[in-house]
Prior knowledge:
By secondary structure, the chain is α/β, with parallel strands linked by helices. It is 41% helix and 17% strand. The protein is built from eleven helices and nine strands. The chain has helices spanning 4-20, 42-50, 88-91, 105-113, 130-146, 160-169, 184-189, 199-204, 207-214, 227-235, 246-256, and strands at 24-27, 55-62, 68-70, 119-124, 153-157, 175-177, 194-198, 218-222, 240-243. An eight-stranded parallel beta barrel has the order 1-2-4-5-6-7-8-9, surrounded by six helices. Helix 5 runs parallel beside helix 6 and helix 10 packs across helix 11. It is globular. The structure holds magnesium ion. Magnesium ion binds at residues 57, 59, 123.
Amino acid sequence: MISLRSLLLLALLSIGCRAAAQPRVIAHRGYWMAPGAAQNSLASFVKADSIGCYGAEFDVWMTADDKLVVNHDRIYPGTEIHMERARCRDIVRIELPNGERLPTLDAYLATAAAHPAIRLVLELKCHATPERESRAAAKIVRALKRYGLAERTDLISFSFHACCALRKLLPEANILYLTGDRTPQQIADAGLSGIDYHTQVLDEHPEWIEEAHALGLEVNVWTVNDEKQMRRFIARGVDYITTDCPEVLQRLLREAE
Ligand code: MG
């Protein structure tokens, strides 16, 4: 029988160990600020890998004809093309600022399969209905398995329903919730892996970082582009920092070693 004192000591040790480790660098929408890249482009994934990021984040929608595409905004800027209401063949005609066509998830995963060092951080966007999110989740999991990427992918969503749907399909995956309206205890109770919250949420609830770690959860923070803010979250012992400026964060982490 383990005494209460030993349990407390183990918990403190685990917090101490986590605090000592440096946060891992996630390139937000890939390393899109690199020359020749664009947000959520295949090039942004390759560039994130080329500078040794831990992971590349990207956003996934299910189109009107139930295909999966990689893009951030619901309506592509400068067009009336709505990711959920347009057909895939019309969406993939969109030209990204770097000259690529807007990628399907298939194309993105094929690229990822050829770059084995970097993790994927797949965001399932909030869709019109929970049913569409469940269907998208099932399709995403099938696609990840088809490319042998289920173990190399972390999943995130602002939709709590989507996170729970993904958890049912992938019991072992890292699944983190984005919205910031639930406590670490609520996330642990739902069987999710962690919180992936906006800087402002973690500034309002600084205690959530330690609470999450004590519950065995991971903590990611987004989107941290300012050096001062990066230093603050490095010092606070988060597990991941999601940034548009991965090379800046990498430099700060090297300096902090
Ligand atoms: Mg995203």
